[in-house]
């Protein structure tokens, strides 16, 4: 048994996962808005630079969510799930 | 020289891959062959991801798009990061469902979550069809690389057929673990190739530095760096990028081979950790776009203005033969390793989800034999389709995503909404395919929303119909719903630690 038997049904602690929408806003929704920017960072066309910055942002966002998940105990949950299912799945291999 | 390098790369990889596969293989069951025994470690898992992400599409398709259109090639920058933003949330759910239901294929998920074996048959067929579309990308590319290796001594028709035979041969000598090994070798070689080409490309086109190439190409072709690109009348606007990128991100993990890759991970934590780093790897597309622009500056004209061949043509015109050999040898692995994984996935789905429901007493040995025979047929169909294929690799890719996108609403809703029913999923898929394929609807989207990815429109219609029909049909049994919604599975009989649904 794990400690958080309050039930996973109340899930306000997963709100931070909405941050995963940020790459969609940056790379997809804002693409038309930045298309005509004339600035050329490092000599690159701005829309290209924008997309590359979006990639770095995506990794940062996903990394941040990963650590917030860790704080919320998701890793422990996953480990206990793995343990529970290993009995039925693992020994079949 | 060129031939010697190509052959040594191929031989060394195949021998290494087979030895690696032998050493780690425990027993030859269908499950082992298809999901690698559910025990692949973090490192192998990461290489498998990279092998899936860095396909011929990225290298030949994107450089070709940069050469022919310019800015629309930025689509590559969206594809990985947005897919992993979705995957971070979705892949652990798929992994959990796989363990709960002891699922092997993607179609198993549909049959189990919606409590309807017939839905497994239908989704199995759709999954196989979209895999066949996807395999075309590998075949068309492999055909081009065969031609490059043989100095265009054979027709593209013959080259495509040879490509198909090579792919089948690779599957039979390899298997999933060996393909993962080959993908690892390919990743290393790919980095060598890209560094080598990029380090020398500026001098090849008379630019002072790498970044000068972007200034030069914009001076020569004003507007190439922004949407819609080189051709001002092209429908590839920023709206095209937005809708295509979203369609790719939502469809990506729904591809059967990627869905099943989530099953084979060691833990949900390793999947999530992997998702942090994957987007950064896709920054390497910068060099691919750079090479496409360089090919344009060098006035490269591939035979028949085939944009897929722009990069290879550029390399064969401007580089010494040992570089061409290295590029060609790497290109073989680039197409073969993912191609093998795609075919294995198609074969195992066919056996397990299309045939077995009608022949439940199939033995393990018969299943494996049937799975192998069917993937030979699928490779044949893909070769046949590729022979008629004149389009860009990017277009083939978007078509494949449109097809698999028809399964996406069921996957997402299956994980978040208890009520999603098998009838609802079927109705949604029917409506979606009509919106996607019927001539009148295709014409309508083409006329009224030319910049919109039709696959995304069809996916939205599919999702809407799935929800509406699910509202008026009964939800699947609680045990089946629990495969998808284990977190909030609410029936009073299912205690929180009662993860015993897959019995």
What does it look like?
The complex is a heterodimer of chains A (93) and B (503). With 93 residues, chain A is an all-alpha fold. In chain A, 58% of the residues lie in helices and 0% in strands. Chain A has helices at 22-29, 31-34, 46-71, 74-89. The longest helix of chain A is centred in the middle third of the chain and has 26 residues, at 46-71. Chain A is elongated and about 60 Å long. Chain A starts with 21 loop residues before the first helix and ends with a helix. Chain B is mostly helical. Chain B contains 23 helices and no strands. The longest helix of chain B is centred in the C-terminal third of the chain and has 35 residues, at 321-355. Residues 488-503 of chain B have low confidence and may be disordered. At the A-B interface, α1, α3 and α4 of A face α5, α10, α11 and α13 of B.
Write a brief structural summary.
By secondary structure, chain A is mainly α. Chain A has 4 helices and no strands.
Topology (SSEs and partners):
The complex is a heterodimer of chains A (93) and B (503).
Chain A: H1 22-29, H2 31-34, H3 46-71, H4 74-89
Chain B: H1 2-24, H2 30-35, H3 42-53, H4 56-68, H5 75-101, H6 106-113, H7 117-149, H8 156-173, H9 176-204, H10 212-220, H11 238-251, H12 256-263, H13 268-281, H14 285-297, H15 310-318, H16 321-355, H17 364-387, H18 393-404, H19 408-416, H20 422-437, H21 439-448, H22 454-472, H23 478-484
Outline of chain B: globular
Based on CA atoms alone, the radius of gyration of chain B comes out at 23 Å
Helix content of chain B: over 70%
Uncertain regions spanning at least 5 consecutive residues of chain B: 488-503
Mean pLDDT, all residues of chain B: 87
> What summary fits the major beta sheet of chain B?
none
Tell me what portion of residues of chain A adopts beta-strand conformation: under 5%
The percent range for strand residues of chain B is under 5%
Order of helices and strands of chain B: HHHHHHHHHHHHHHHHHHHHHHH
SS elements, strand count of chain A? 0
Structural class of chain B, please?
A: mainly alpha
Average pLDDT metric of chain A: 83
Tell me how many strands of chain B there are.
Answer: 0
- Count of individual helical segments of chain A: 4
* SSE string of chain A, helices as H and strands as E: HHHH
Q: Total helix count of chain B? A: 23
Q: For this entry, what is the oligomeric state of its chains? A: heterodimer
- What structural category arises from helix and sheet content of chain A? mainly alpha
The CA-CA distance between the termini of chain B, in Å, is 58 Å
Largest sheet properties of chain A: none
Q: What is the CA-atom radius of gyration of chain A, in angstroms?
A: 20 Å
């Amino acid at each position: 048994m794990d400690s958080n038997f309050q039930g996973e049904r109340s899930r306000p602690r997963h709100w931070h996962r909405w941050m995963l929408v940020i790459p969609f806003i940056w790379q997809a929704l804002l693409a038309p808005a930045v298309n005509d920017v004339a600035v050329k960072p490092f000599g690159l066309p701005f829309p290209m630079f924008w997309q590359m910055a979006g990639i770095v942002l995506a990794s940062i966002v996903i990394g941040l969510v990963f650590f917030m998940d860790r704080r919320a105990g998701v890793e422990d949950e996953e480990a206990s799930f793995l343990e529970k299912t290993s009995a039925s799945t693992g020994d079949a291999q | 020289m060129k031939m010697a390098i190509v052959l040594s790369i191929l031989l060394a990889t195949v021998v290494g891959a087979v030895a690696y596969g032998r050493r780690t293989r425990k027993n030859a069951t269908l499950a082992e062959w298809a999901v690698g025994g559910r025990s692949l470690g973090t490192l192998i898992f990461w290489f498998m991801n990279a092998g899936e992400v860095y396909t011929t599409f990225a290298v030949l398709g994107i450089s070709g798009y940069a050469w022919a259109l310019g800015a629309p090639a930025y689509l590559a920058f969206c594809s990985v990061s947005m897919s992993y933003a979705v995957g971070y949330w979705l892949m652990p759910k798929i992994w959990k469902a796989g363990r709960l239901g002891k699922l092997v294929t993607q179609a198993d998920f549909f049959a189990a979550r919606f409590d309807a074996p017939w839905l497994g048959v239908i989704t199995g067929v759709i999954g196989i069809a979209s895999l066949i579309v996807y395999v075309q990308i590998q075949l068309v590319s492999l055909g081009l690389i065969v031609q490059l290796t043989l100095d265009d001594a054979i027709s593209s028709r013959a080259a495509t057929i040879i490509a198909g035979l090579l792919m089948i041969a690779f599957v039979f000598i390899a298997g999933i673990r060996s393909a993962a090994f080959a993908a690892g070798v390919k990743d290393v070689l790919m980095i060598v190739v890209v560094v080598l080409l990029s380090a020398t490309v500026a001098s090849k086109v008379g630019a002072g530095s790498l970044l000068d190439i972007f200034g030069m190409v914009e001076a020569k072709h004003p507007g190439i760096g922004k949407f819609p690109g080189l051709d001002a009348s092209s429908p590839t606007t920023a709206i095209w990028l937005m809708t295509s990128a979203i369609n790719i991100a939502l469809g990506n993990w729904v591809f059967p081979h990627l869905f099943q890759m989530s099953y084979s991970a060691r833990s949900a934590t390793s999947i999530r950790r992997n998702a942090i780093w994957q987007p950064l790897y896709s920054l390497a597309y910068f060099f691919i776009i750079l090479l496409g622009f360089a090919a344009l500056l060098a006035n490269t004209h591939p035979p028949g203005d085939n944009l897929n061949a722009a990069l290879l043509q550029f390399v064969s015109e401007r580089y010494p033969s040992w570089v061409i050999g290295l590029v060609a040898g790497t290109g073989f692995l680039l197409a073969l390793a993912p191609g093998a994984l795609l075919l294995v996935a198609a074969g195992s789905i066919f056996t397990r989800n299309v045939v077995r429901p009608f022949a439940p007493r199939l033995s393990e040995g018969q299943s494996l034999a049937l799975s192998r025979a069917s993937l030979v047929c699928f490779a044949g169909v893909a070769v046949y389709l590729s022979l008629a294929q004149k389009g860009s690799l990017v277009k083939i890719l978007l078509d494949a995503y449109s097809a698999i996108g028809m399964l996406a609403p069921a996957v997402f809703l299956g994980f978040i909404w208890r009520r999603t029913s098998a009838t609802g999923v079927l109705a949604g898929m029917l409506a979606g395919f009509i919106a996607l394929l019927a001539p009148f609807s295709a014409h309508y989207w083409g006329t009224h929303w030319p910049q919109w990815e039709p696959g995304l429109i069809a996916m939205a219609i599919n999702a809407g119909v799935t929800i509406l029909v699910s509202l008026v049909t009964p939800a699947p049994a609680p045990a089946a719903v629990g495969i998808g919604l284990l977190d909030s599975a609410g029936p009073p009989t299912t205690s929180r630690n009662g993860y015993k649904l897959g019995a």
